[in-house]
Amino acid sequence: MHVDGLSEERIDHRFKGLPPDAEGLTVGELAAERRSIFDGGFTTPVLALSAPALEHNLAQLEEYCAKHGLAFAPHGKTSMAPQLFARQLAHGCWGITAATAGHVRVYRAFGVQRIFLANELVDAAALRWLSDELAADPDFRFVAYVDSVRGVELMDAALTHRVDVVVELGAPGARTGVRDEAVAHQVAEAVAAARHLRLVGVAGYEGELPVKTEETVTAWLRQLVALARELDARGRFAEADEIVLSAGGSAWFDSVAQVFDAVDADDFSRPVFKLLRSGAYVTHDDGHYRRSTPFHERVAGSLRPAFRLWAQVVSQPEPGLAVLNAGKRDVPYDLGLPVPQVVRTLSGAERAAAGMRVVKLADQHAFVELDEGAGVEVGDWVGLGLSHPCTTFDKWQLIPLVAEDGTVVDFVRTFF
Amino acid sequence: MHVDGLSEERIDHRFKGLPPDAEGLTVGELAAERRSIFDGGFTTPVLALSAPALEHNLAQLEEYCAKHGLAFAPHGKTSMAPQLFARQLAHGCWGITAATAGHVRVYRAFGVQRIFLANELVDAAALRWLSDELAADPDFRFVAYVDSVRGVELMDAALTHRVDVVVELGAPGARTGVRDEAVAHQVAEAVAAARHLRLVGVAGYEGELPVKTEETVTAWLRQLVALARELDARGRFAEADEIVLSAGGSAWFDSVAQVFDAVDADDFSRPVFKLLRSGAYVTHDDGHYRRSTPFHERVAGSLRPAFRLWAQVVSQPEPGLAVLNAGKRDVPYDLGLPVPQVVRTLSGAERAAAGMRVVKLADQHAFVELDEGAGVEVGDWVGLGLSHPCTTFDKWQLIPLVAEDGTVVDFVRTFF
């Protein structure tokens, strides 16, 4: 990958929260100044990404995948940050997962060589571009989902270069993906009849099962393996070099490891390539994923929440209410509201944020309910824990990477 | 304003939905090609901004403000699009309203000369930048809210150049802003004692009243006028050239016009400057603002929803369900879900979207419930009506501006 160019980008009005007095410096130059996020001229609200927490999380999933013989293509839609993709690849990842053709374009612009598109793609303009990209680079490895005969036909009509596809297995009441084996076999037959497609496996996403328990997730994963075996038995992977089995978000990767561990290679005609695709692990969070990770409770390992949003109290207009200058444009709100963690006064004193709750967000404000004696003042900075990495990253285009003591050591650029 | 440079920007992977085969063209060059949004190589999902609807809306508020003697500083946080600010100013607007110091930086980067910051600003780094900006340009007119003595003191301590402020009037249970006259007078006294602040009026936002009816909004607006009169009687505007009265989002501008119309200039020691700040009107919408605009029903005038999001059906995995390739990253979901309006088949035939409802969004997918016989196919484009302009604009960095027939005539750049 080639991400070094990102440090040449100029700091300016495009990047909220960055120091106004750094205007015109390059990202690399500002990082070299090693400013403090607290008194280095950053303006609130500003999102901080913890460098040690990030490194911890990268290492944890690398270790987990190595231990369980899983290849790993973390879902890049979470961060859309090429610098993080480069670090994920440096931590042993096979490739990066994408959700849209737009994501694939971003990945390719920064030289990602192996991309798993965990989605259907029937857009003719995007498929023409993809054909050209594959034709221009024989080392570009690409795999996408198919889940309908019509989708296969639309793909094949637009493509001019061979594309590897996997049948997506869904479940009744879930999102995309075939609901049963009969449709899977029809889709596989359509792929076999297509000029530009090659079937290489079966994949899906357990996170969209309508009921998710260890039992339902495990049963569905076994169904996925069984479908691959049946397609293999019918000769549907005749053109493939290996058979891809892929699943796994950030909540059930232990079940994926367990079921994929149990796969008997002798049951398949070709080597089996087991691919995990978790994305949210990279920053983890203080809400949804804190509650749903299998680490800590179900299996050995740990993740650390890497994001903290610093907002400032701009108003305390009546007893029991403080208003912060961060709103829907700055923090995620789709899987729970932010949670005040620490209060930092203008003198630099920090304390736990006791008796404070974010109860509502406007576009540019957060409403914080205060218990009596919460002792917050206009001007205080409030550090917020967040829920849902995906809708955090997409609100920030250049994110300070901070050391434990608040020193900004680098910046992470996102592309949404 | 200087926005012409935006047409020199290069089309690339940063801008989702734009034609992959336009990579490397400038925005101006691509606009000059007059491509169709439907078969010009744009990829789904893609947001379309209607050029005629936009022009209609710009003209409607211009006319309304002229008729009612209101100056207009539309809230720029809605679009964060300098090209739209330039058009708003060309349509007679006095200036542009901002919500954060970051907004003010973007506005200044493109040469907005009059900015109303409808928020408290106590961030020292931002206030230092603001001081420098005011010192460097004597023609830069800036006004901000104050609502607490402490806020005034923090501003004054950080500023090195005089800043005009207005007391923000709130209401019990609302957002920021003083809750009663007593605090307003304390804040005014603090401003009088400050070295770098000058009190020039009273302002607020009726959209945050806990109960909003014509009665409560009108009563609150009258309170705002009365507060200004009382502050004036106490000599608090002694240094001001004119007295600013400002209120008004996109839902109650008729009440603002009515109450401000009734202001008797003879009651004030100086000329009264009545400033409206509606923002969402610029694109209007098919949801929240369609229901809340005073146009159509309460007063003469009309607005047209200017946004349509085109997504593609990528999967139809079970009866009654279609899945589109647009999700939380592409459409607003905080004031209602998108509504399917039209279906466009790959042959270009369009029909009303009957029997289709978006019932859920994932990060990159929309779940559409289908009535029997809805007749949707994988590959179809679905045109979605949206609710909430502010959380639409902020998901798109370069938005095609389309003529009635789908010809893309320009692109609007946003800065979030």
From TrEMBL, chains A, B:
Family, as annotated: Belongs to the DSD1 family.
D-serine dehydratase-like domain mapped to chain residues: 306-403
Keyword Lyase on entry: yes
SMART domains: D-ser_dehydrat
Keywords from the named record: Lyase
Name of the protein: Amino acid deaminase
Organism domain of life: Bacteria
